[in-house]
Amino acid sequence: QVQLVESGGELVQAGGSLRLSCVFSGGTFTRHAMAWFRQAPGKEREFVSAVSWSGGSAYYADSVKGRATIFRDNYKNTIALQMDSLKPEDTAVYYCAAKKIYSDYTTARVDLLWYDYWGQGTQVTVSS
Predict the structure, then answer these.
(1) Per-residue pLDDT reduced to its tens digit, 7-57
(2) Residues facing residue 80 across a β-bridge
(3) Which of 30, 20, 23 is nearest to 51 (CA)?
(4) Of 25, 31, 36, 92, which cross-links 48 as Cys (Cβ 3.0–4.6 Å)?
């Protein structure tokens, strides 16, 4: 069974940076597209970023484009999300997600319903 464990969430000041990590286990990492979502209090879970199985394709929400970079390490079975110029509106629980793929041509999607597996989340709080 695939397990995802996030880490790296913390309290940071606006304008600061942080790096979230997600460790994948229990499956073949290179047969999974990976993504980050977030959920702020009282709001729906929303897409942040995604990466294809090879790392060759990456996607970002407009709200983080230019401030976030997703990394994928297929040797360490991990993904990371580097976020810079943090804003108070980035405050949320950040979740790692995985989707098993069956074709090398499958990249990644922004739809949270597409993903099969979820981590427990890591809290990011940005103070103004």
Answers:
(1) 999 999 999 999 999 999 999 999 999 999 999 999 999 999 999 999 999
(2) 21, 71
(3) 30
(4) 36
In Å, the largest CA–CA distance within the chain is 44
Dihedral of alpha carbons 43, 126, 50, 62, sign = positive
The token duo for 24 is: 């994948």
Beta strands in the chain (DSSP E): 3-7, 11-13, 18-25, 32-39, 46-51, 58-60, 68-73, 78-83, 92-100, 117-118, 122-127
Q: In three state form, how does the secondary structure of 102-122 look?
A: CCCCCCCCCCHHHCCEECCCE
CB atoms within 10 A of CB 107: 17
Q: Across the chain, what does the average pLDDT equal?
A: 96
